[in-house]
Automatic annotation (TrEMBL):
Cell compartments where the protein resides: Cell outer membrane
Assigned keywords, A-Z: Cell outer membrane, Membrane, Receptor, Signal, TonB box, Transmembrane, Transmembrane beta strand, Transport
Similarity field: Belongs to the TonB-dependent receptor family.
Signal peptide bounds: 1-26
Record-given protein name: Outer membrane receptor protein involved in Fe transport
CC per GO annotation: cell outer membrane
């Protein structure tokens, strides 16, 4: 809260306001007219009535109607965390905020964004304000504010309301408000600089310098300031993080029987074990080659290897499981059978893991070795002024410009290249040759054994390949050998290729102008305060995504030897096959699946053919820079947000009816316009087939809102036999959106202080959130669903664990059977037969192409929140305060954008097929010889939709409730013990999460998913800070950030399914997690302060089976230093 202080605080404690180097709940122990004397005759603190966040009525901060958390500027400057949001995320109420490490990977257009997320209800339900005013959103069509664009040195403090506040501040304040209060009337020069490590070992660092200058002119009637800031953070890769480099992986070592007649699910053998130093060899960068083969299925009483049929020339993934006799590894230009070392992982048909052999280290494969923290380079500028026009009227203005460039690498491009001469006739130089290799989409290609870069031993092995076929296993016998051996002259060369990366530039401009004034009295209204403000903001974002052009990749990798020099007159030269075909006058059809019948009109000048550069895809390090340049494509998206906001408000005090204090009243109106538009990736795609995300233009979309609000405070008693003070307040807001329509919200608050030592507060608020322009109007664009697990997979159904597992299994069996029957297929989804031949066991080799877009039929979200707070500041312990804040929030008509996995699971997991979600999942793969492929989620290459339609929907509700707690205490040793050992300050702030429920099944309103105690939702978390100030110039702080253990699997689910041997028991929970930080601050001179931090002093790591989770501090021990210089 904004306090006008006439004296320094000394040892005075305003409960929850002052806590050394810690965010604190803003409550106060004082009442009007009461003074507290500090040590050594320190003069008393005087507190005046001000406007407090959470209300527009001026009042004593003691009587603030809602709970507040306050963060000081010094907290932000002194932290060892890399960013503002990383520090805010240490506050339990904000622990699941979006931090930069969350913006890497497959996400687009969001590099480096920092969004606050109160109560883990989503950043879109948290309203961020600057001095109580709106700020333009940082992503196209959204309202979330990137808090990194708010310069740290300009921040006075951050006030956080933890509860619904739409009736006071408008839409989006569903879970609360973050109000950044900027410094006022700054005079002088201040320079702040910081350098720090981003990761243990120092492979990446961050640095920042900020300068603030201000002056008072015209007899102090005019104040002007200017601020500039530069910040740079290096990119952190997976390989920079020590615990990822250890190559830890959890693998199946035992598969349980799927039928009780075959044996118990709990057979006493642990199903999963962990291994270190593991390597994976089935899909390395630039590939390994596996010849067609078939794995022998295990007996059904111990079904480690399931039955997967291979018919010889099929391109089914069931035919290309890695095997020591069929898989080739590349060393430079040569190939040999792969070294499987000590093979680990006994379950599944494809068992690619080993220790000591070939392959890429676990966690550092081309799939995993991506950016974990994006490269960021930012410049931020802001200037402003305040001008006292008269004694009662002030003009203020601000102008702001920020620019940020980011870069990060996501998953590398991937492909499957089938090598066979079958169906193509002979080689390029044989008379029976017909046509080029095939390009079957963005990631599936074909070439022949005459490929110029394919080692001769591999080509010969493919041509002569045969393998043993096996029949289905029985209860007590492995699958029998079927004679004769199967001819299989085909191989799959699969791997990762060039990286897919993105660069992003985001610019924000914001202008603020306004007038504010006050009069002692207007008519019968006292202490009149009024404000008029206007905000204009713009966000411009340009994202450049880079990856492979599939057509060019297909041409380049299908290279041959031009024996006669027909292309360039150089016999023996390696050329692209299409170039040699063109030189021979053979008609070449485009390989674009969308235009498969089109003939190249002028192949001699077409850059896809004339410019083709042969690409060696057989082994890492064999690729020429010219070939990489030829296959690399880049596309851009350009997006704009524009915001206009105007607010007029007036407040004052009316009558004092019974001596408790005057009636407070505030009324006002707000107009806001949000506009967005963009040029999509399709403009740059220009008909090309790219392994990148495409998308149409974001056509101009906007909405306008008109809102009217009122607020009232009614003091009920003061210095009465019934108590020290009580106040009832209420707020109301009516709105009219051009998209969401009309509605209203309200809030009621009560403050009661029976004695000066204790204060009670309670509130009930309704709030709303209108669908954003992105949720409503986002154009459909291509995306990929990665890591998909088919909920109809026989093994997945058998091993399903979760609430009501038995019923869910039965539902999936019935619903998947119905879906398959509609396609004329039949599988044994429930393992009811004593064979695996009729099971459904698909293998998904890569991401599933899908589309993602908006939904114009969305309804606004509505919420109700209730809080009850108790603040205790006992007089017998003048430096102690305790605050408890209980909260309940329910959000209805929740807008979610479910992922493909959610849609597929929800389609088949209920008592009947869910027509809403089933209609968004497509099993449209073309008919092949493999029935698994026919039923898999997906669509033929060139299909405009793909496997999923992803987009926002209104879906049931969210509920959360919990208890915030804060303890603050300070001790002056000289006052307490007569010995001057300095001053100690202690704070403890935390959260006890009672419930975090997600109701996602409209057919059963009482069914919910309980996230409480799950990963990212610890039952208890707190931050403890102890600061020792031995003298006036030195302060040392120890911080402990603690989270209770979180469930990866709930024990009750394992008991319900009887699968107690699923994995080691201690893997089911993360265990408690504590990170310790040390900080030192030293005032070298009056104008120079030095500081140093060690973050995660004891290098605490999350359990390795959890994987990368930003809330568990994955970066290890790191250091930072900084200074603050104030020359005048």
């Amino acid at each position: 809260m904004l306090l006008k202080r006439k004296f320094l605080f000394g040892t005075t404690i305003l409960a929850g306001v002052m806590a050394a180097a810690a965010p604190a709940l803003a409550q106060s122990t004082q009442v009007p007219g009461v003074t507290v004397t500090g040590q050594q005759g320190q003069e008393a603190t005087e507190i005046e009535e001000v406007v407090v966040t959470g209300s527009r009525i001026r009042r004593d901060p003691v009587n603030s109607p809602t709970p507040l958390i306050q963060v000081e500027r010094e907290d932000l400057l002194s932290t060892g965390q890399a960013t503002v949001i990383d520090y805010l995320a240490t506050i339990p109420a904000l622990s699941n905020s979006l931090v930069p490490s969350d913006t890497t990977g497959s996400n687009l257009n969001d590099g480096g964004l920092e969004f606050a997320n109160l109560r883990s209800l989503g950043s879109g339900r948290t309203l961020t304000l600057i001095d109580g005013r709106r700020h333009v959103g940082s992503q196209a069509g959204t309202l979330q504010v990137d808090v990194s664009t708010i310069p740290r040195l300009l921040i006075q403090n951050i006030e956080i309301i933890t509860g619904g506040a739409s009736s006071v501040y408008g839409a989006d304040a569903v879970s609360g408000v973050l109000n950044y209060i900027l410094r006022k009337d700054f005079e002088g020069l201040e320079i702040d600089a910081n350098w720090g490590q981003l990761v243990q070992g120092g492979e990446a660092d961050t640095r920042r310098i900020s300068v603030l200058a201000g002056a008072n002119l015209l007899d102090d009637r005019l104040n002007i300031y200017a601020h500039g800031e530069y910040e740079r953070a290096e990119e952190v890769y997976s390989e920079h993080i020590d615990w990822l480099r250890r190559g830890r992986v959890a693998l199946g070592i035992d598969a349980d029987p799927t039928q009780a007649s075959l044996g118990p699910v709990n057979d006493g053998f642990i199903d999963v074990a962990e291994f270190y130093g593991a390597r994976r060899l089935d899909r390395p960068q630039w590939g390994s080659t596996t010849l067609a083969n078939m794995q022998r299925p295990s007996r059904l009483s111990d079904p480690d290897v399931p039955f997967a049929n291979c018919s010889g020339l099929s391109t089914s993934s069931a035919c290309f499981n890695v095997d020591p006799a069929y898989t080739y590894w590349y060393d430079g230009p040569t190939a040999r059978l792969a070294n499987f070392g000590q093979r680990i992982g006994n379950t599944g048909t494809n068992r690619p893991w080993n220790i000591g052999g070939d392959g890429e280290p676990a966690n550092l494969t081309a799939f995993n070795n991506r950016s974990q923290f994006p490269f960021q380079e930012s410049e931020r500028y802001q200037t402003g002024l305040t001008f006292q026009l008269t004694d009662n009227i002030e003009f203020y203005g601000e102008a702001k410009y920020t620019t940020e460039d980011t870069f990060d690498v996501g998953q590398f491009s991937f492909w499957d290249i089938f090598i066979t001469d079958a169906g193509f006739g002979g080689g390029i130089n044989s008379g029976s040759f017909v046509g080029p290799g095939l390009i079957n989409g963005t990631s599936q290609f074909s070439t022949r054994t005459d490929n110029a870069f394919l080692p001769a031993n591999v080509a010969t092995a493919i041509q002569n390949n045969t393998f043993v076929r096996y029949g289905p296993a029985t209860a007590n016998a492995d699958g029998p050998v079927l004679n004769p051996a199967q001819s299989g002259p085909i191989a799959n060369h699969r791997g990762f290729g060039i990286e897919r990366n993105q660069t992003n530039n985001r610019e924000i401009t914001r202008f603020v102008a306004g007038l504010e004034g006050n009069w002692d009295r207007v008519g019968f209204i006292d202490n009149v305060n009024w404000t008029l403000s206007y905000v204009h903001g713009e966000m411009n974002n340009v994202n450049r995504e880079q990856g492979p052009d599939a057509i060019r990749f297909g041409h380049a990798m299908d290279s041959v030897v031009d024996l006669a020099g027909e292309v360039n007159g150089r016999p023996g030269e390696i050329v692209c096959r299409v170039q040699l075909l063109n030189a021979r006058g053979i008609t070449i059809r485009e390989q674009n699946p969308n235009t498969a019948t089109t003939v190249y009109t002028d192949p001699n000048t077409n850059p896809e053919i004339a410019g083709c550069v042969p690409l060696n895809v057989f082994g890492k390090g064999n690729q020429s820079p010219e070939a990489i340049e030829y296959i690399t494509a880049a596309i851009r998206v350009r997006e704009t947000n524009e915001q206009e906001s105007a607010v007029a408000a007036i407040s004052g005090q009316l009558w004092d009816f019974w001596g408790a204090g005057p009636l407070g009243l505030a009324v006002g109106a707000e107009y806001r316009r949000e506009h967005t538009q963009g040029i999509g990736r399709s403009a740059d795609t220009a008909g090309r087939v790219l392994q990148l995300n495409t998308g149409a233009d974001f056509l101009p979309a906007e909405y306008e809102s008109e809102e009217w609000f009122a607020e009232m405070s009614l003091p009920l008693l003061r210095d009465s036999w019934m108590g020290e003070y009580a106040e009832l307040s209420a707020s109301y807001r009516a709105f009219d959106y051009t998209t969401a329509g009309e509605g209203d919200v309200y809030g009621v608050n009560l403050v009661y202080r029976p004695i000066r030592d204790i204060t009670f507060k309670t509130s009930f608020n309704t709030s709303f959130r209108a669908p954003t322009l992105q949720e409503g109007f986002r154009p459909f664009s291509q995306t990929f669903v990665n890591g998909f697990v088919d909920p109809c997979h026989t093994g997945v159904i058998a091993n399903f664990q979760g609430d009501d597992a038995a019923q869910t299994k039965a539902n999936r069996i019935a619903n998947c059977t119905q879906l398959a029957a509609a396609k004329g297929l039949a599988f044994d989804f429930g393992s009811t037969t004593v064979t695996q031949a009729d099971d459904y066991r698909p293998v998904y080799g890569s991401g599933i192409a899908s589309v993602l877009g908006g939904n114009t039929n969305l309804n606004p979200e509505e919420s109700e929140s209730f809080t009850f707070s108790t603040a205790i500041a006992p007089r017998m312990f003048p430096n102690l305060s305790l605050v408890l804040d209980y909260y309940e929030i329910t959000v209805n008509n929740v807008i979610i954008t479910p992922g493909g996995q959610f849609l597929a699971d929800d389609c088949v997991s209920n008592a009947q097929l869910n027509t809403q979600t089933c209609g968004l999942v497509f099993r449209n793969n073309p008919t092949t010889g493999d029935p698994f492929d026919n039923f898999k989620v997906g669509a033929p290459a060139g299909d405009p939709i793909g496997g999923f339609i992803l987009g926002p929907i209104n879906r049931s509700k969210l509920e959360t409730r919990g208890l915030d707690f804060t303890v603050n205490y300070s001790l002056d040793t000289e006052e307490a013990f007569g010995r001057n050992w300095g001053r100690f300050s202690y704070s403890l702030g935390g959260l006890w999460l009672i419930d975090q429920k997600n109701f996602t099944n409209p057919a059963d309103p009482n069914a919910f998913t309980d996230s409480t105690s799950g990963v990212f939702f610890p039952r208890v978390e707190f931050v403890s800070r102890l600061t020792w100030r031995p003298n006036d110039v030195l302060a040392m702080t120890w911080t402990a950030d603690w989270m209770s253990s979180q469930d990866l699997n709930k024990n009750r689910d394992l008991v319900a399914t009887g699968n107690l041997d699923n994995q080691p028991y201690d893997w089911n929970r993360t265990g408690n997690f504590t990170r310790h930080d040390f900080a030192v601050r030293y005032d070298l001179r009056d104008d120079l302060t030095l500081r140093a931090n060690v973050t995660n002093v004891f290098d605490t790591e999350a359990p390795p089976f959890l994987g990368f989770a930003s809330t568990f501090d994955p970066y290890g021990r790191r250091f930072n230093v900084g200074l603050n210089y104030r020359p005048f």
